[in-house]
Amino acid sequence: MDATLLRESVEALADDMGLLLVDLGWFQSGRRGTLRVLVDRPGRVTIGECAKLSRAIEDMMDRDMLEPGSFVLEVGSPGVGRRLESENDWKRCVGRTVRVETEGDSFEDEIISYEGGCLVFAGGRIVPSFLVTRAVEVLETGGNRGRKA
Q: Can you tell me the distance from the alpha carbon of 65 to that of 48, in angstroms, rounded to the nearest whole number?
């Protein structure tokens, strides 16, 4: 199966379920391949949503792959601490606390929206996403909003 077509097909399945495709990787090990799919959504993705998507991907792969059953499928969420870089990352992290680094600043705050390429934070900051040099989701410990890291 073509890698671009695979990504587009999985992304369409995820989108139909209200999920955002965060990452997709195909790893070949001998005769058996592994398809690793990471999805999320604003709020949090559930195990049930991952299972439902997994079944849909399996059906699609069995129908469209030349050798049915010749792969292992892993569907999950990206988890805390994963680097945030894409528009899908910003959208899925609305309502979550992130540690953000820009050229001259570093802070932790909750993203309250992502609009027009800009991150809007609970503490009142608005940061164009292209100015972010590094960002990761962090576990909220209470009272860390808007604080310098």
A: 25
Q: How confident is the model at residue 82 (pLDDT cuts 50, 70, 90)?
A: confident
List Cα–Cα distances, 73 to 17, 31, 53, 113, in angstroms.
18, 14, 11, 32
Three-state secondary structure call for residue 129: helix
Q: What is the CATH number of domain 87-148?
A: 2.30.30.100
Residues forming a β-bridge with 34: 27, 72
CATH class of this structure's domain 3-76:
alpha beta
pLDDT surpassing 90 at residue 144: no
pTM of structure: 0.74
**Residue boundaries of the structural domains of the chain:** 3-76, 87-148
- Condensed to tens digits (0 to 9), the pLDDT of residues 17-47 reads 999 999 999 888 788 888 999 999 888 899 9
